[in-house]
Specification:
The complex is a heterodimer of chains A (333) and B (278).
Chain A (H helix, E strand, L loop, with lengths): L2 H26 L7 H8 L6 H34 L11 H16 L4 H24 L7 H24 L2 H12 L7 H4 L2 H14 L1 H7 L3 H6 L4 H23 L5 H13 L3 H26 L7 H20 L5
Chain B lengths: L1 E9 L2 E10 L5 E6 L5 H8 L7 E6 L2 E2 L5 H7 E4 L11 H7 L13 H13 L15 H14 L4 E5 L7 H18 L2 E5 L3 H7 L2 E6 L2 E6 L1 H4 L2 H8 L3 E5 L6 E5 L9 H15 L1
Parallel strand pairs in B: 3-8, 3-9, 6-7, 7-8
Antiparallel strand pairs in B: 1-2, 1-4, 4-5, 9-10, 11-12
């Protein structure tokens, strides 16, 4: 192995170790202090004391945070690769907001319920939003430039969020359930709700991994990628589809969680370099760890109440986003 | 390689028309012409970047626009005019990506890949730069790295779109010498768009001159680089002389500010002297 590969493997190892640590923290630490005996008992499935019951709630939430974090991290890395746009993010490009609008519309007007239907609706909304943003961003001279995509995405995000709000405000019957969901959180998790996500996540993650090499070539420009035998439109389409599926599923179940897809790939790129065959797995591990950490932090900072992960990621993500833009001095925008 | 009745268009705008052209195997061919005459477009239709509106591009008799992209990319490489590299990519990583056409969806890196990359780095004199970031290189070094990436692709034909643009004269010579090395060592067929007529005449075995999307002339530098060609293609009066070192023709443009010159007569006189010498 070359020194670069050793460095990458080393960082990936560190990230995995940190992930295990964070997952353990997430199960053992929370708003309620639970003794080790109860934690041990709860892990074997017992729910006799309040402590054991609390741990039994933490488990599926932790699993959901791990899965959602991995999916959003990978989706962010894929979107940044596809658009060659460092500030790209499923949140900023309107994909999450589109998924949210679709789900809320479904709940408010079409009596949407059940996890399968919600997940499909989320994916559909994410797909429509990303297609719309890409179409608008491609208008005019020069095609889909990073600046136009970012502007179109931001505008779409705001528009979709406004529609969502308008829908919810007029409907007292759904406002409560939608509002909790809309902040973005893992609080409502149960193993039964997580199971239907798994096939979608599996497909999305595998498809993303399969496009890693193509993303490496697309990073060199469409002409170069094409000259090296990449079917550019097809490669970009499959990669985007993978990201849309991942975002759609996560948003349908957790609500829109912002900034994770932006911050995680950036962090990984600093550690790993720009090879997507390393960047994507690293984004999965770091994304899972970071979202779980946000879940832990949300329970510690506001004891005895909880802060949803959507708020924690926004608090961490917004300054990091500004730092990224400043560091790039808006290069490429 | 061969173009037969080739026509190309961007939307409604026709850029190339009725082009019949033979690119000899194992030789260096330079494409010259005025701005917007269709040089780059010709190169794009010669690769897979632009589908021709009419006619065909043949590689050993097979239409390249019907070949699977990867199969074509194993045989024919193209270096675009201004390739982009992501921030923070290393030379070794970039050159390694040149192996893309030789890999399937999940295939693993092989010793053959390592060998191809090492060879490409050595051939371009960039072995010492392997661990460096692309951003940290000079323009000349960067261009050599891009050529290394195209070499790692190991194709029998290499197309280059103005490989010397933005380089100072020393780096231009360095890059062109490198291409000649490659052509001699590996027998790679090289087709490049060049702006500088003198460099084209100096380095190419054959020159193709385009004017307004049509073939003006094609042949050896001595056959193509003539006062008439320069006047027809570039609307410029000039003198042609033989380079004392290489014997290749050299173009010296006339200026409106040359002392007392009657351009046409001068040009005619020079053509006569060139003929006398050769």
């Amino acid at each position: 192995m070359s020194p670069l590969q050793l460095t990458r493997a080393g960082w990936l190892g560190v990230a995995c170790a940190a992930l295990v640590l964070v997952a353990a923290l997430s199960v053992t630490v929370g708003t309620r202090a639970v003794g080790w005996a109860d934690i041990g008992a709860a892990l074997t499935g017992r729910t006799e004391t309040i402590g054991q019951a609390a741990v039994n709630l933490r488990l599926p939430r932790t699993v959901l945070a791990l899965l959602a974090g991995a999916a959003l991290g990978v989706a962010g890395a894929v979107m940044q690769g596809v658009t060659r746009n460092p500030p790209a993010d499923p949140g900023l490009l309107g994909v999450n907001a589109g998924a949210a609008l679709a789900v809320v519309t479904g709940i408010a007007w079409f009596g949407l319920s059940g996890s399968q239907a919600t997940i499909w609706t989320g994916i559909g909304g994410a797909a429509v939003a990303s297609a719309f943003v890409y179409a608008v961003g491609s208008l005019g001279q020069g095609g889909a430039t990073p600046l136009k995509l970012t502007l179109a995405g931001a505008a779409t995000s705001i528009a979709a969020a406004s529609f969502t709000l308008a829908l919810v405000l007029g409907r007292n019957d759904v406002a409560g359930s939608v509002q909790a969901w809309q902040v973005g959180g893992v609080g409502g998790a149960s193993m039964a709700a997580i199971a239907p996500m798994l096939p979608f996540l599996m497909v999305g993650l595998l498809a993303a991994w399969a496009t890693a090499r193509h993303l490496n070539m697309l990073a060199l420009g469409d002409d170069t990628a094409s000259a090296f035998g990449v079917r550019v439109v097809w490669a970009r389409g499959t990669a985007l589809a993978a990201a849309v599926v991942l975002c759609g599923v996560v948003t349908a179940v957790c609500g829109p969680i912002g900034f994770l897809g932006l911050v995680v790939p950036h962090l990984c790129r600093l550690l790993m370099g720009v090879d997507h065959r390393w960047l994507l797995p690293a984004s999965a591990v770091v994304g899972a760890g970071l979202l779980t950490l946000a879940y832990v932090a949300g329970r510690i900072v506001a004891r005895p109440s909880e802060v949803d992960v959507g708020i924690v990621t926004a608090l961490i993500g917004a300054p990091v986003f500004i730092a990224i833009l400043r560091r790039q001095r808006l290069r490429g925008l | 390689m061969q173009a037969a009745g080739l026509g190309a268009a961007y939307g409604e705008r026709t850029v190339l028309e009725g082009l019949d052209l033979e690119i000899p195997k194992g030789k260096i061919t330079a494409i010259v012409g005025a701005n917007a005459c269709g040089k780059s477009t010709l190169l794009r239709t010669f690769s897979r970047l632009l589908a021709p509106a009419r006619g065909q591009v043949l590689l050993d008799g097979a239409d390249i626009h019907r070949m699977p992209p990867k199969v074509l990319a194993q045989r024919l490489g193209l270096l675009p005019q201004q390739p982009v590299a992501p921030d923070g990519i290393t030379v070794a990583d970039l050159v390694g990506r040149g192996r893309h056409p030789h890999h399937g969806l999940f295939s693993r890196w092989t010793p053959a890949d390592d060998a191809a990359v090492a060879q490409a780095l050595a051939a371009t004199g960039t072995t010492d730069l392997a661990a460096r970031d692309i951003d940290a290189l000079s323009g000349g070094q960067r261009q050599r790295v891009w050529i290394a990436m195209a070499l790692a692709q190991q194709t029998e034909v290499l197309l280059l779109d103005e490989p010397t643009t933005f380089l100072d004269i020393a780096h231009q010579i360095e890059v062109l010498d490198l291409l000649v090395d490659l052509n001699r060592a590996r027998g790679t067929t090289i087709v490049m768009v060049l702006h500088d007529l003198n460099l084209a005449a100096r380095y190419a075995d054959r020159i193709v001159a385009l004017a307004d999307g049509r073939l003006h002339s094609a042949g050896t530098p001595a056959e193509v680089l003539t006062v008439d060609m320069v006047r027809a293609v570039f609307r410029l009066d000039c003198r042609i002389m033989a380079d004392p070192a290489s014997g290749r023709p050299m173009m010296l443009p006339h200026s409106r500010h040359d002392p007392g010159a009657q351009h046409t007569s001068l040009a005619r006189a020079d053509r006569a002297t060139l003929k006398d010498r050769t």
